[in-house]
Amino acid sequence: MSKKGKVYAVGIGPGNIEHMTIKAYNTIKDSEVIVGYKTYIDLIKSLIHDKEIISYGMKSEKERCKKAVDLARQGKIVSIISSGDVGIYGMAGLLLEVADQNKSTKTMEIEIVPGVTASVAAAASIGAPIMHDYVSISLSDLLTDWEVIEKRVEMAARGDFVICLYNPKSKGRQRQIEIAHDTLLKHKSEETVVAIATNVKRQNEKITITTLKDMLKHSIDMFTTVIIGNSKTHMSVDDQFMVTPRGYKI
Amino acid sequence: MSKKGKVYAVGIGPGNIEHMTIKAYNTIKDSEVIVGYKTYIDLIKSLIHDKEIISYGMKSEKERCKKAVDLARQGKIVSIISSGDVGIYGMAGLLLEVADQNKSTKTMEIEIVPGVTASVAAAASIGAPIMHDYVSISLSDLLTDWEVIEKRVEMAARGDFVICLYNPKSKGRQRQIEIAHDTLLKHKSEETVVAIATNVKRQNEKITITTLKDMLKHSIDMFTTVIIGNSKTHMSVDDQFMVTPRGYKI
User: Fold this and answer.
1) Which of A6, A20, A135 would you mutate first to test chain B, the one with the most B CBs within 10 A?
2) What does the record give as its pathway (chains A, B) (predicted)?
3) Domains by residue range for chain A, with CATH
4) How far is A93 from chain B (nearest CA, A)?
5) How many CB atoms lie within 10 A of CB A60?
6) Are A55 and A68 in contact (CB under 8 A)?
7) ipTM (interface predicted TM)
8) What is the pLDDT of residue B216?
């Protein structure tokens, strides 16, 4: 009998290999085939030069998952990769949905390997901005109605959460961050501390500390995570670090 | 001149060493002193048998930070550890606040090393429940007014976020999860899928899938993370996995 194939959905962390978990590293090393978006494949190419690599452009998520499932049904050990954590705006969910549709799990297995997501990596580069209750919102309305996203931005602001914005802006989506900004200003002080973190833990990492009032004056792109503090977030240690206090008496 | 000391605030991940990042592993290996809560020290003891270990009981967070800062001012390389990510309900924020108070960073350095937080690790063991916008809320009111927490629970429910609850219950805090549950039921369907994840990625990992209606019938303790789905979260792949769809057409 031939061996049973398996797909691992692997979060490779923010970008450089040292922020990958040991489990993610070993899983990729032990896989026969690596499937992923070209940009992410490039981030780990030093790890996978001896592997079969199936690399895709943007917006081919379903094809990637189908390919990974097909290969596993043929008995292959496959890693399908996402940057950050694979379970936060990554490939894990779609992979499970595709496997469910194909009734594939009778003939192959699936395992999710977690990773350090963009907001956590960005927070570490900035200090400790998400030490207290926070929300994660993607501003991409490609797959989600804008009304749902805007309501979430409003509720997050009214709850005085720290707010991490994924996919804040791209060439095709310029207005969303402006509308979200207007909503935030209705419920949060314009002096709220904001960090704009681009290419975190990659070459050309750039961190800008600003305020809610001024945040749109700075460069934001599809490699940016925006972290908006709560009402108690402040700069600390000679303005080196952004900190949201947990509430300890110092 | 003596060497400059440094404190690394290190997130060791959910518990087993393989879910630690390579950077966290190497940082701990390269440190002279390890400071932490005894339970977390025990999780990594195979890594640190040749180190000076300063282990504390619960509720000694400030002492731990002061000790780490003092040692670094004496020129030592110190890792202060938290389980999960050190920047999410961990030691990073308090460490920076203590260092700020002591004006310590003229004589020592601080670096934050991110890790896989409990909600991300739990999600991977369950499937893909936090594939879409989510909030993280700690139900511990030791340091935060309960009114603030309760408002956040309400706003999270009204925004139809996936909700990850940290510190849901302990010996001394039994009522908080009951009040939160009442609030959630006002805004979310009682059939909402809920996962109760205890000791994730440790020995005796236990995952229970239930509904919002029934969640309090199951065992919840201080090693539990509770993940409450959004209105579209469902079970998938023969009920093996909990999935919150991103919105792709399958």
Assistant:
1) A135
2) Cofactor biosynthesis; adenosylcobalamin biosynthesis
3) 5-116 (3.40.1010.10), 119-243 (3.30.950.10)
4) 5
5) 14
6) no
7) 0.97
8) 98
